[in-house]
Amino acid sequence: xxxxxxxxxxxxxxxxxxxxxxxxxxxxxxxxxxxxxxxxxxxxxxxxxxxxxxxxxxxxxxxxxxxxxxxxxxxxxxxxxxxxxxxxxxxxxxxxxxxxxxxxxxxxxxxxxxxxxxxxxxxxxxxxxxxxxxxxxxxxxxxxxxxxxxxxxxxxxxxxxxxxxxxxxxxxxxxxxxxxxxxxxxxxxxxxxxxxxxxxxxxxxxxxxxxxxxxxxxxxxxxxxxxxxxxxxxxxxxxxxxxxxxxxxxxxxxxxxxxxxxxxxxxxxxxxxxxxxxxxxxxxxxxxxxxxxxxxxxxxxxxxxxxxxxxxxxxxxxxxxxxxxxxxxxxxxxxxxxxxxxxxxxxxxxxxxxxxxxxxxxxxxxxx
Length: 368
What we know:
This protein is an alpha/beta fold. The chain is about 45% helix and about 15% strand. The protein is globular.
């Protein structure tokens, strides 16, 4: 059937109109994307200038020369901002902040370190600043760049305070394989054997790695197990990871529970041979000391915001996690510890040892 000329013209005009609408929409979207890009770029440039005017950043960080070397690269990137780093364990850091606040002192900007019940308790008292709203760079705010998205990046129930940028399988401890046969420790229950009594050391269970690990043991194996382990099997408690490692290597206490991985990396980088075997069996994943915690009423808030965004970029995460031999939560960063990857298809079998849900078990451990 022949289409009459007026109808052909109407169809042609309608097609032209639709094409014009399409190109107008494309142009509008391009303008919006460009405006958003210019917006964050302007905000980023303004942030750098504001941080430079503050000229300083006071933070707590994990112990060990490797961590210090990696974190001080921030000062290389922004040389006009003086970086003041102090290595303090979490149980000591938050207690110190609390006493300083009572005296009206606001001295800290930021902490990089592990989380335990003390940190969460003080978060509810207003000591922690919201961090999620401080994320600015598109590569940092992109959900697809993080395992579990941005919600997965944060360990607190609000998903906005404590950003844990690492995720890896965590052993319960280590033992000297020269002095303790691998056949002697094949399950968590083996730690209760009479033959191991008096051969164990434990990181101070009132906070930090010691409390975190005992919280998972309580959750998985129950109160009686923790009571028996602490009261009957463990010979000594220490808050010095270096001392604990040296005890394990010398054979004084060949089994080291709650020993932080950072001290192992530090010794390995100095050429020390570590013939230690992992104690596994709890299916526990951790962020270790890889958590960024911004402090409320900080003296240098812009420098802290700049640091956090810098820290969470792909390039920095790649260098940092390779150096400390841990696995970043960024999906575009190669694992720094391939043997400690938490398989995606086994996530339901694992429990996190530092997320806020785990704190109820740590609270039960503390009185023990």
